[in-house]
Amino acid sequence: MPLNMEEYEYLREGIEQVQGLTGLAKAQLETEETSPQSGNAMSVFLTALDRACDDAIADADGAVEVPL
To answer: What domain of life is recorded for the organism (predicted)?
Structure first.
């Protein structure tokens, strides 16, 4: 479904906020003492979330209507 520019910017901003929070969580995870299993599981989850955000941005980029 095509997105108008306003919808695109709103969606992109939200995704970028999630990516920013993901980065902060990764940094926090690196500084805290956690069990190896717990830390690894959280790291895998955050990496998957970051990749999903990248995919969502690519999808949004492909769905935006470009005015002629």
So the answer is: Bacteria
Within-domain flag for 21? yes
Give yes or no for a contact between 11 and 3, defined as CB atoms under 8 angstroms apart. Answer: yes
**What is the residue range of 49's domain?**
5-63
pLDDT digits (tens, 9 = 90+) for 37-55: 888 889 899 999 999 999 9
Look up residue 48 and give its two tokens: 């998957």
Whether residue 28 lies inside any domain: the answer is yes
Rg over CA atoms, the chain? 16
Query: Residue 45, by phi and psi: left (phi above 0), alpha (psi -120 to 50) or beta?
Result: alpha
The answer to the question of residue 68 being in a domain is no
